[in-house]
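JOB MANIFEST
job_type = single_chain_structure
chain_count = 1
residues = 300
[input]
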Amino acid sequence: MKIGFALPQFHHQAYGIARTAEFAREVERAGAASLWVGDRNLAAVRPRIGYGGQGTTIPAELNPAADPFVLLGIAAGATERVLLGSHVLVAPLYPPVQLARALTSIDLVSGGRLLPGFGVGWSPEEYQAAGLDFGTRGARMNELLDALEAVWTTDPAEYHGKLLSVPLHHAPLKPARRPRPPFYLGALSERALRRVAERGDGWLPLCTVPSWVDTDGLVAHRALIDRWAREADRDPSAIDTVLRVNIDAGTAPGRVADAIRTVHERTGIDHVMVDTTYAVESVDEAMEHAVEMIGLVARG
């Protein structure tokens, strides 16, 4: 099992982001496989759509949110081995050239350890703040992947779609990972799962321990991805999976470790990232929790 952890980014931990480098070094030293960020551009006071696309509320824990690119850059410079991922960036909110530049810089600083994970998001207000149409987010994602492909693999580079356009420009600075960093994609809906099957190098599902651990759903969704990948003449085994594990407040580390092992046994998923945003408050507690979790999962 490979286990990774969310960097201090949200809720009380956001106020301790000056210790991001310390957190990254300590968790890497303890044996973590990866470090991760999420993305929350804003949490609306009166959201039309709630957290995860359900209801009309957003957890208060997401109100304070640090910048994911800055945190990944700090972690890249502070570590030597761990993978550095996003689970997920709300990618269609960002212009493709600026997104490519930020991720290229992080990948170069880290020596090719970037796992960029993208999703379309669920907040209309975030799209409103960016001056974008929430209803076109899926189409924007498809074009964004094409634009990133062009910017990362050609020089000069250009892209022209219906929603996105990148003029012909010099693009000599490329990521360390060749031919480009992998596309990891968050997906729950059928349309998003098809995107993983047809375009993704990795799938980013999630669960919450103990309130929502749907192993049957994970297995069923992965079966769809594999079937659609074969239909697209792609090798399903080449599509990686990293499971996000959110932790409900008050959940003991041992219970989380047991859930991770159960998911692994029933689904075969062997890489998880643990987010303690809802479970602990301080950066010190997050580091202690991570070290304990690594030990528990390693002991089996």
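[summary]
The radius of gyration is 18 Å.
The first strand starts at residue 2 and ends at 6.
exit_status = 0
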